[in-house]
Amino acid sequence: MIMEMPIPSYVGESRPYGNVGDMRNSGWEFELGYKFNVGDARFDIKGNASYLHNELRNLGNDTGFLNYGINQFSGGGTRAENGQPFPFFYGYKTDGIFQNMDEVRAYTKDGKMIMPDATPGDIRFVDINGDGQITTEDRTNIGNPTPKWSFGLNLNAEWKGFDLGLFLQGVADVDIFDATYRQDIASGNYPTWVLSRWTGEGTSNKVPILKQGDSKNWVVSDLYVNDASFCRLKNIQIGYTIPKSITKKIHFDRIRIYAMAENLFTFTKYHGFDPEIGANANVSDSQKPYTIGVDYGTYPQARTFTFGFNLSL
Amino acid sequence: MNTKIFIAGLCTAAIAFTSCKDSFLEVPCPNGEPLEEYYTTQEHINEAVTAAYAPLHWPDWDGTAYNALNIDAEIMGDDFWVGGSSNTDNEHWHRLFNFTADGNQTLATLWTDFYSGIKRCNDVIKYCEYGEQAGVDKNDLKSYEMQARLLRVYYYSILWHYYGNVPFYLTNLQAPYTAPQMKADEIYAKLAPELEEIIASNILPMKWDSSNYGRVSNAMAMMLYAEIVMYQNDETRYSKALGYMNEIINSKKYALNPDYANLWEESGEWCNESIWEITYNDDNAQRDWGDAAKNVGGTVLPTLISPNTWPGGDGWDTGMDGWGFLPVRLETYDHFDAKDVRRDATCWDVRGVNYTERYQDTHIWLKKYRPYTETCKDCPGSKNLNYNNNLRIYRYAETLLNAAELIARGAGQGDAKSLLTQVRTRAGLGAIDATIDNIIEERHLEFIGEGKRYFDLVRSGKAATTLVPDAYGYRTNTWTPSKKHIPLAQSELDADPTLVQNEY
Fold first, then answer.
1. How far apart are CA B388 and CA B485, in angstroms?
2. What span, in angstroms and rounded, lies between the C-alpha atoms of A166 and A259?
3. What whole-number distance in Å separates Cα of residue A298 and Cα of residue A281?
4. What is the pLDDT of residue B24?
5. Per the domain annotation, does B295 fall within a domain?
6. Rounded distance between C-alpha atoms, residue B157 and residue A104, angstroms
């Protein structure tokens, strides 16, 4: 595994590349195809699916882990760690919102308040290590930007000069980190999900209170992690070939007209522009692996419509 | 991986079955010339020296964060607010202002910038060895090596001022790329004798000729020495520091600029008063967003510290970019005697001008580094990142005040009052007694916005009583001695788990 060596920045030099570690990708691939005719119609269906288990075996440094930040976010980011998928989102787990002071006081460990400074509307962070307080030690794996499942479906059909081509593609069991809400600039753009923030008892049990200068709630947590599974109609094409008996008369061997659409439909629960973002294209190659699945407002893929015809002499 | 092993296997087989000469194994270096062969001319080593100076101009904007050296210090003091669009805009400054910084909100990239400088200085010293073997002029090499050693002390001294306990190394690190973290006192114990040695060698001139302004000089080394000795309150070195100040004064190569306001104008750069500045230039300036932040060019400082949506006028055109950081406190303006010429050279008073106020806006801005259309006009690209202003680090006025204070602290003989009076006369004020308190107060007025006040408060023991909650509810915490050393960045603690975080 050739990657940047995880050295401290006080070395004074950009991180050198080295054959630093091992990674294992294991899984299964399935493919199934079937051709059949129904009357005059001919069909050709092909589907594939793959299951991937990705594991960083050895990062190659002493600690066995390395943290990378997410721009404009504090308290976590993406992380590499032995025995975990590479990369994964590393931050705090949330457990709803404190609705009132009673709930703050009731959140205790051995009789001591776990978050004594919290006020109503703040996030209840999970005390992962059980030491009775919320510290950086409570950060954990909160999401995996590498899809476990990828699948595709190809369908071709022909009937009396008409032809249809269709390509579906998707992934499942994958997460995205929505980094588009920049909490450090009060006058920045807000995504609409901020509207569902906590504004009083019982108003929200997910999105915390919105106030200026709040660095407690808006840290890297599962609040920003979203299911990025999607299924997309990547390509669909419908064509019609004019019968030879007609085309011969005007001295053409073949005339076909068609209509095509790319990215016509995307089925996803993700609220951002596009669930299929990959790595950030605007950072250097060495930084790209750490931006996988971090959505800084990636420009979405265009929906394209094409109409045309093929002529053969 | 398997493919590689397979190919390696084939190659082994190929070599095993064909005979070959030794020369077959000597392949040219695919990355170009090896360092030992490149750094064998005066010209090439000078390139490395220039590269060692380069990180000096990164902190104001290094592509990741804004850490202008004077702002970093002033926001912890008592003359300015932080400003910006809100108290989360450049949150690290707001947190340092209120003494609530942590590993995630600290001067993370100042550390990275200046360790790059240290690494490059170490490189120069190494390359000078290569040059010596190749017969490069010995005097040139001595000068390069000494500049690198002095610059390295400057870089370490900044890290030492802010973080205190930092990793220390004088030859560049090899695998596993870690260096021992030293206590602040241990760092000081390394830096002070190194400066004594550099000064005693007398290799660097007291003042460079004008074509070499920007290089570190012996006078700069002496100023740096006085600064760290006084910050450490190391009485054993006071007399030596006073001796150095007297050397600068007696050299007659520096003098007060009779016009305090001119110090901050373009024509005042590298005037007789200037001992050392970090140079920025708008001519063909190339600094920009992202990686281009480290290109040659001007500074973003005037943009950072000027009013937002300026309507135009007063030498700065409408539409120019201002971000509203570092508003001057009203109390600071009022603190000046009305006769003090420094007030109107320090404060850009725009009360009465309408523009969109930003957070903590007082309508008074730091005039010393305020923007003018004129001072960024020669930049062909992002003008707001490329103002011409050099950052003034050491001035002759400080030499005089250092000497006065060292005398007042019992370092040796001398007329402290006349030294202090020189500075006050230029400001349009009369003589006062040269008590330590009076001198600290004079430094306050003289150096507002130059990044000295906070450290003066710390070393003189006044921080805990001066840096207290304000009447506006901005600063709610009081400085304590543990605030002297700011937190190390969490990312560094993660990368080197042997680093110990400062008790902040």
1. 32
2. 12
3. 9
4. 64
5. yes
6. 45
In the numeric block, the tokens 């003189």 are attached to B460
Residues of A in contact with B98 (CB under 8 A): none
- Determine whether the interchain pair A10/B166 forms a contact, defined as Cβ–Cβ distance below 8 Å: yes
- Select the residue of B88, B116, B166 nearest A212 (Cβ to Cβ): B88
* Domain layout of chain A by residue ranges: 2-92+139-181+218-312
Q: What is the CA radius of gyration of chain A?
A: 26
CB contact under 8 A, B85 and A185: yes
**Tens digit of pLDDT for each residue in A79-128?**
989 999 988 999 999 999 999 999 999 999 999 999 999 999 999 999 99
The complex's ipTM?
0.85
Which residues of chain A have a CB within 8 Å of the CB of B167? 8, 10
B74 vs B304: CA distance, rounded Å: 14
Per the CB < 8 A criterion, the answer to whether B165 and B484 are in contact is no
Look at the block and give the residue holding tokens 């209170």.
A209
Nearest to B116 among A7, A12, A212 (CB): A12
Report CB contact under 8 Å: A136, B118: no
* DSSP 8-class letter at B350: -
Q: Whole-model pTM?
A: 0.75
pLDDT digits (tens, 9 = 90+) for B267-312: 999 999 999 999 999 998 999 998 899 999 999 999 999 999 999 9
Residue contact A67–B173, C-beta within 8 A: no
A45's enclosing H/E stretch is strand A41-58
